[in-house]
Amino acid sequence: AEPAAEPAAEPAAEPAAPEEPDEWAPFADQLSKLRGILTGDIPVNLLLDFLYSRNRADLQVMKNTKSCVDARNSVCHSAAIFANALMHSGTTVDTFLRENLDWLGRATNWAKFSATAGLGAIHLGHVRAGRALVAPYLPSSGGGGAGSSAYSEGGALYALGLIHSGCGRGVQDFLQESLRNTRDETIQHGACLGLGLATMGTHDEGVFEDLRSVLFTDSAVAGEGAGLAMGLLLCGSAATGKTEEMLSYARDTQHEKIVRGLALGMALTCLNAEEGADTLAETLLLDLDPILRYGGMYTLGLAYVGTANNKAIEKLLHYAVSDSSDDVRRAAVLNLGFVLCAVPEQCPRIVKLLAESYSPHTRYGAAMAVGISCAGTAQPEALQLLDALAKDGVDFVRQGAYVAKAMVLIASQESKQKALRAQLDKVVGDKHEEQLAKMGAILAQGLLNGGGRNVTIALRGKGGFPRMNAVAGMAVFTHSWFWHPLTYFASLAFQPAALVAVNEDLKMPVMSVISNVAPSTFAYPPVLSDKPKKEAKIAKKAVLSTAARAKKLKAEKAKVKAEKDGGAMDVDGGAAGGEDAPKSGEDEDAKAEAEASKPEPASEELDNPARVVPAQEKFVSFMEGSRFLPLKKGASAGILVCKDTTPGEEVCVVAAAVAGDAGDDKPAAGAGADSAPAADEPAPPPAFDFQP
Q1: What does the DSSP assignment read for 170-237?
Q2: If you write DSSP's letter for every residue of 2-34 in order, what string do you get?
Q3: What is the DSSP-derived secondary structure letter of residue 377?
Q4: Which of 1, 261, 310 is nearest to 147 (CA)?
Q5: Do 267 and 231 meet the contact criterion of CB atoms below 8 Å apart?
Q6: Which end of the chain is flanked by fewer CB atoms within 10 Å, N or C?
Q7: What Rg do the C-alpha atoms of the chain give, in angstroms?
Q8: Neighbouring C-beta atoms of residue 330, cutoff 10 Å
Q9: Helices 110-122 and 185-198: crossing angle, nearest 10°?
Q10: Model confidence over 605-634: pLDDT tens digits?
Q11: Distance CA 85, CA 123 (A)
Q12: With 50 as the cut, is the pLDDT of residue 6 above it?
């Protein structure tokens, strides 16, 4: 799958806005803004501009990973593609893919499906050009894209859903039509996932009918996608009638993939339902099929997400130690992370004994539970538990520990991340490391640098309520244990660590805020160098005493001769290049030491939009006398509507960073440099004749 350089189709047209009564005409502008806020179009575009303009993803990390991964190893090759997509999620920067087309083209079959879908994670939220970005791979009315395979077409539909997740009105009809017009189970699988993402939480009856039609074909691959998509469509609805229908079909079918998709789909319908999900949860927990009991664990975890409900914790702990199925025990421990995500300090203590279980599946679940509940907190207790699991003798336990550590340390200070970065580099570069552990380390690199190093993982909003998209995305991400392409759902749990100030026109004015802490405290990690490491200095050769005496005698004779001639001559160590002459490298080191010795300022100004990580929020404030002040007092992160204290003056606004057309040139995010638009290239020289 190759990223599209020139789109071949026009972006999908947005549906026409409903007509308002004539008496609403004076308020048309306000209604348009309100509609943009409620549909998510305005927030998505503002955050997309932030992630693009502030992108600091270090491409050298991916280059080093690529050099350590054998392209013939499908597991690690796919993991590197996943890591790149997560690292650049929402930034629209696909430079690494464009520079490594031959390497990317080695993906085959389902790996090609995943590689194409990665474009959706990279361009997450770029709804203005979403359709055009993946147009070369989309199924055409004639039955297929030009020169593309069913795997590329299915991956493109999945990518389209990722791009429009949460605001898919513009592509819903196209995805439904694509689903109806194909009988290929690969394309159906991608279309179902894309449709579920684009219509998440909308409870659309027409979409449900289309998904049910695919489910009833009893195709294992397409049915699994349809079951998951039903859960995403009905997310948080606790629709009893539809879940009963899904449960009935799960008991009738002979395909485990379909049962697994329906089990997780039923759990998603109960998200944040609390007591409303008890009946379904009990039914699933008492079923003889371990896959349905597996779904029952997710039903409990998602229904009581962030509540720390004692009854839910007790049931999960009971099944974690008593069920006969490894998958059920793993899911039971893992879902403790969802229940305890509002009180992350309690999770390491509760799963501490489970992390020492004889069962590696239980230990893996304990690692992921800590990663989910303590995401972005950098808690020492969580890191201590994960450090022990990272030394486990089982490869997939170490995989879970690496991923969980990255989730815990995302958007934290570089001083806390440094040890993990070194550990991940060592694991990825070790040729003798087991493949599953290496896969976990590669994914951890993508998560740790997620969103161009400008995002955190947040399952709850500022008000403490669960973020539906984030919780659902994290739940499906953990399901990637069975199906690797679901790894991209982790990008739904990303939340930009941003302060975006807007005026009454919902435009970003040119302004600054102040961060009352040393700039190095929350600075970006240093960029990796592409130069080879310096070799160790060679020790000085031993000099015999006889040679030293001869050298000294020669120097004395030269000195006497110079005095007779009346000249001045530097001997042994003069400025003419003697042994003691200062080297240029030493001068550079001295300059670096001088720079480091300068006192660091106690604060810094951050331009709008600004990167503000969670731990930094308490140090950020608007400057005294600032023209724009937030309407919500004390707010220091997120999208803030500001009041203009001098409304009569002209307002300078920040230009949109992301162009609306997919064909516009993107800056190269090379080696972690600022990926903001660069200056124009110099003009070519005039024509001339070359005379050899």
Answers
A1: TTHHHHHHHHHT---HHHHHHHHHHHHHHTTT---HHHHHHHHHHHTTT-HHHHHHHHHHHHHHTTT-
A2: ---SS--SPPPPPPPPPPPPGGGGGGHHHHHHH
A3: T
A4: 1
A5: yes
A6: C
A7: 29
A8: 28
A9: 20
A10: 999 899 999 999 999 998 888 888 888 888
A11: 9
A12: no
The phi-psi region of residue 334 (left if phi > 0; otherwise alpha if psi is between -120 and 50; otherwise beta) is: alpha
Which residues share a beta bridge with 399?
Answer: none
Neighbours of 377 (CB within 10 A): 22
What's the DSSP call for residue 509? B
Per the CB < 8 A criterion, the answer to whether 272 and 284 are in contact is: no
Residue 467: strand, helix, or coil = coil
pLDDT band at 356 (very low <50, low <70, confident <90, very high): very high
Residues ≥6 apart with Cβ < 8 Å to 186? 113, 150, 151, 153, 154, 221
Please state, as a whole number, how many other Cβ atoms lie within 10 Å of the Cβ of residue 679: 5
Contacts with 490 (C-beta within 8 Å, 6 or more apart), sequence order: 86, 447, 473, 474, 477
Distance CA 44, CA 408 (A): 25
Residue pair 272/312 in contact (Cβ under 8 Å)? The answer is no
Q: Give the Cα separation of 573 and 259 in Å (integer).
A: 81
For residues 365 and 332, is the Cβ–Cβ distance under 8 A?
yes
In this prediction, residues 524-539 reach a mean pLDDT of 66
- How far, rounded to the nearest angstrom, does the alpha carbon of residue 355 sit from its chain's CA centroid? 26
* Secondary structure of 149-164 in HEC code, one letter for each residue: CHHHHHHHHHHHHHHC
Do 376 and 412 form a contact (C-beta atoms < 8 A)?
Answer: yes
Backbone phi and psi for residue 264, each to the nearest 5 degrees, phi listed first = -70, -35
The one-letter code for the residue type at 478 is: T
